[in-house]
UniProtKB/TrEMBL annotation:
<feature type="binding site">
    <location>
        <position position="8"/>
    </location>
    <ligand>
        <name>Fe cation 1</name>
    </ligand>
</feature>
<protein>
    <submittedName>
        <fullName>YmdB-like protein</fullName>
    </submittedName>
</protein>
<dbReference type="GO" id="GO:0004113">
    <property type="term" value="F:2',3'-cyclic-nucleotide 3'-phosphodiesterase activity"/>
</dbReference>
<dbReference type="InterPro" id="IPR029052">
    <property type="entry name" value="Metallo-depent_PP-like"/>
</dbReference>
<feature type="binding site">
    <location>
        <position position="39"/>
    </location>
    <ligand>
        <name>Fe cation 1</name>
    </ligand>
</feature>
<feature type="binding site">
    <location>
        <position position="179"/>
    </location>
    <ligand>
        <name>Fe cation 2</name>
    </ligand>
</feature>
<dbReference type="Pfam" id="PF13277">
    <property type="entry name" value="YmdB"/>
</dbReference>
<feature type="binding site">
    <location>
        <position position="154"/>
    </location>
    <ligand>
        <name>Fe cation 2</name>
    </ligand>
</feature>
<feature type="binding site">
    <location>
        <position position="67"/>
    </location>
    <ligand>
        <name>Fe cation 2</name>
    </ligand>
</feature>
<keyword id="KW-0479">Metal-binding</keyword>
<dbReference type="GO" id="GO:0046872">
    <property type="term" value="F:metal ion binding"/>
</dbReference>
<feature type="binding site">
    <location>
        <position position="39"/>
    </location>
    <ligand>
        <name>Fe cation 2</name>
    </ligand>
</feature>
<feature type="binding site">
    <location>
        <position position="40"/>
    </location>
    <ligand>
        <name>Fe cation 1</name>
    </ligand>
</feature>
<feature type="binding site">
    <location>
        <position position="181"/>
    </location>
    <ligand>
        <name>Fe cation 1</name>
    </ligand>
</feature>
<dbReference type="InterPro" id="IPR005235">
    <property type="entry name" value="YmdB-like"/>
</dbReference>
<feature type="active site" description="Proton donor">
    <location>
        <position position="68"/>
    </location>
</feature>
Amino acid sequence: MKILFLGDVMGRAGRAAVAERLPKLRDAWKLDFVVVNGENASGGMGLTAAHAKDLFEAGADCVTLGDHAFDQKDMMQAVEREGRLIRPLNYAKAAPGRGHRVFTDGRGRKVLVAQVLGNVFMRRAYDDPFSAIDAILRVHPLGGAVQAAVVDMHCEATSEKMAMGHFCDGRASLVVGTHTHIPTADAQILPGGTAFQGDAGMCGDYLSVIGMDKAEPMRRFVTGMTKDRFTPAMGAVTVSGVYIETDDATGRATRIEMVRQGGRLEQSGP
């Protein structure tokens, strides 16, 4: 199976770039399944139902969220209506929506997508992500209940993301980090057959401060004072993520490639 995961879509510029490039990538790379992290797609904070619809129309089979899952009020209802939206598994127990789902690709193969929030350096403490994902993977074994499994580990600390990769090794096809917006150069297949990348990066303008127009973040760093709101940068976008190929019989990854298309970053892809 050929799977593409795209990192955090950043604001209007990120949405436009995904809308332009994803249909072409689906065709050129003959993709079977696409996951997009959309938690920053609406003004850099959260995702509206309308913008989620745009991502699905661009070619996403599933859109994951993150710690900003419900920053946009209409997502409280949208995540209940739209089963292709995945919020963090270990979010508040009363949160609407689901933290995992089994999808079916165009050839009838089953794909598990799950998202968990880490705890290190995050805004607040969440339920243990390791026990949360363990319970899901135990009932969806690779090569049995599902032909592929994708885990979106949404957190700040690279150490926590790497630990999740090792924890899921042999039980997931891909463990990929999101949230920090800068792609890491550690794409690899772990000994048990799980593809891993510490952070997928963002679909945003990299002439910025992690996707935000650089003026206000720099002012706050230099002066310690706030003047304006953060606003997403609007320059040329690099669509960033990770591409994997898997063995349908085992669900294990056979290939992994970093993806960087367009914009300022060095280009890469399968």
